[in-house]
Write a structure and sequence with these properties.
The protein has 137 residues and is α/β, with parallel strands linked by helices. It has one domain: Ribosomal Protein S5, domain 2 (2-Layer Sandwich). It contains 4 helices and 5 strands. It has a 5-stranded mixed β-sheet with strand order 1-4-5-3-2, with helices on both faces. The C terminus is likely disordered.
């Protein structure tokens, strides 16, 4: 990646949370959305539930290092937000990189997106049939 930029504005984070696609893993949650720029942008969120400042900064370093190693392999023109989870501080950057690679390829590959959408529709339709009227589930 020639240009390393980060997401800083709250509206960019909110756009990804509400309109972007997401992938969940015990180490990290990834949100992705296309941008109209020729490069990728990254945003990292670590809450105080994870730990004190030293621990939160370690999480950010691990996520950032894993992303910058993967960035040449990723198609350009995407915004990503990574949300650290409780297991992130104990993870190594190589472990984080393998999880992140799977999530990013799943979210950015057009062939996988069609399969995911069809699977999600099928799953939701089955869940609605199983649900009883008046139940909360």
């Amino acid at each position: 990646m020639n240009k390393r930029t980060t997401l800083k504005l709250n509206k960019d984070f909110r756009r990804l949370y509400f309109k972007g696609k997401n992938a969940v893993h015990p180490l990290i949650v990834t949100y992705a959305s296309k941008n109209r720029l020729g490069y990728n942008r990254i945003g990292i969120t670590v809450t105080k539930k994870i730990g004190k400042a030293v621990c939160r900064n370690r999480c950010k370093r691990i996520i950032r290092a894993a992303f910058y190693q993967l960035d040449p392999q990723i198609s350009q023109g995407w915004d990503f937000v990574f949300v650290a989870r409780m297991k992130t501080p104990q993870a190594k950057s190589t472990e984080m990189m393998s999880v992140m690679k799977k999530q990013i390829l799943n979210l950015t590959d057009p062939a996988n997106q069609k399969e995911n959408q069809c699977g999600a529709k099928r799953k939701n339709s089955v869940d609605r049939k199983k649900a009883k009227p008046g139940s909360c589930s």
